[in-house]
Amino acid sequence: MPVLDGVAMTISAADLADFIERLDTASARHEQALNAADARLGDGDTGSMLKRILAAMVAADARQSDDLPGAARRLAQATMKETGSSLGTLVATALMTLARQAGSRGGALAADDMADVTAAMADAVAERGKASAGDKTVLDSLRAVAEALRTGPATEATAARAARAALEDFRGRPCRIGRARMFPERSTDADDPGMLAAALLLDDVETIDAQ
Amino acid sequence: MKKLINDPARYVDEMLEGLVAAFPGLSLGGESGRCVARAQPARDGKVGIATGGGSGHLPLFTGYVGEGLLDACAVGNVFEGPSVQSCIDAIKAADRGAGVLCLYGNYGGDRMNFDMAGEMASADGIECATVLGADDVASAAPDEAEKRRGVAGIVFLYKIAGAAAEAGRDLSEVAGVVRRAAENTRSIGVALSPCRVPTASEPNFRIGDDEMEVGMGIHGEPGISRAALATADAVADIMYERLAAELPLRPGARVAALVNGLGATPLEELLIVWRQIARRLGQAEVTPVTPMIGNYVTSMEMAGASLSLMVLDEELEALMAAPASCPFWTVSP
């Protein structure tokens, strides 16, 4: 069952687990492409790291949690246990924000809440990772997704289109954070691996059947 | 490239089991199971020195736990930051009631996790201060030096921090002198071959047989230039001149110097590099104090070398000379 299925639907722990399982399947498909994208700008492990984190989250089985905040916390803990990498810490930060956002809304979220929730996740990731809008990181994808969900139908297709548009919008622009900012001529032509991951995985999530 | 391993997923844990089996002065524990600390904790009232980072760089980081150096180290997977829990474990293990200096390299994962751990330790009443190793001149321009990554120069900072803490200085004094040491330390490396993490099927970058990469990061991050492989003297000159451009190597200056092997370069070749560095220092009328030549900060089986220099004043020189002992480095009185 898609997470962002319609305005009336409430997102459950099982929906989150289902979403993570489909991301997990997608990450296996794109592991090497993401590693290759990261090798151009960083240390070449974004795809493998994402696959490991998602596998750890699937193993943690968010369905065992009573509610959405509990499920999100469970996934954050599984991520932090799996790795201390910056990617893992930022994913855990986003999940803890999801847990807090759901908690502040009585333990549940509707699809229409997801614009605000995604924006809050972007803010938390920016604060923890010290990135700014326009630096060419996954933060720019999150902000684009939040904006699209606010103005368009709150669906997974909207999120996927926004992530894809952000990726294309930033092609031709240099990275402004991390080691990649040291060689703007190379980073301008390269996709940020985090932005690429957001685009590829959200594209796939729509088409992968839940396991 | 071949590796002598049992199970890629158990690489770090089996390495740690071997480490503490070989060196009884070290213990392995914490809630994470990924904290190396002194088996006999330091005396009460001494400022604790905690560090952490990814595996794959031995002797960095865990190898420098010992008297006059570090009290505890949080251990991450190969080339990954340590988990928040292991950072908390290291801070707690280092705490002897006088606060803890968290001293680690300026990497995103390490910083985020130590930040979170420091916040949680502070809530438990442990005062924490932080100094980052940020000595790699290839990782940012001088006008944004705060963004530089930490590489082999952090070994100097461990020595300064450990000696200052052993001397009984308080947390702000220890942090202050380590910051001054950091401001006077610069490093650069040249890689000749890639490395491969145990869980990967491929090397983490490619480099031609006749090429070298100047300024490559210790995880295989791209450097500042790729060039035709040059002689040892030419490589030494490239590294020396890059550091000399940023450090006050004036006649009469004294420096701590480290020619560091990245993992797969023979000691003989490091000595050939040092021969030229010593010559260049001599021409500049700069005196190297107890030069260190060897594998101090590695990148798995990456071939190549790095040069680190720290310009000394009287206080820093005395702290560098203070006795210290750990599995991979001993400074005798």
UniProtKB/TrEMBL annotation, chain A:
Q: Name one GO molecular function term.
A: glycerone kinase activity
Q: Where is the DhaL domain?
A: 14-207
Question: Does the keyword field hold Acetylation?
Answer: no
The Gene Ontology CC terms held by the record are: cytosol
UniProt key word Transferase: yes
Q: Which Gene3D superfamilies match?
A: 1.25.40.340
Q: Which UniProt keywords apply?
A: Kinase, Transferase
Matching Pfam families: Dak2
UniProt-listed InterPro entries: DhaL_dom, DhaL_dom_sf, Dihydroxyacetone_Kinase
Q: Which GO terms describe its biological process?
A: glycerol catabolic process
- Record PANTHER family: TRIOKINASE/FMN CYCLASE, TRIOKINASE_FMN CYCLASE
What protein name applies here?
DAK2 domain-containing protein
Species source reads Roseitalea porphyridii
From TrEMBL, chain B:
- Ranges for domain DhaK: 7-329
Which GO biological process entries does UniProt record here?
glycerol catabolic process
Q: Per the record's keyword annotation, is Kinase included, yes or no? A: yes
Q: Which InterPro entries match?
A: DhaK_dom, Dihydroxyacetone_Kinase
- Record-level GO cellular component terms: cytosol
Alphabetic keyword roster: ATP-binding, Kinase, Nucleotide-binding, Transferase
Q: Which GO terms describe its molecular function?
A: ATP binding; glycerone kinase activity
> Could you identify this protein by its name?
Dihydroxyacetone kinase subunit DhaK
Its source organism is Roseitalea porphyridii
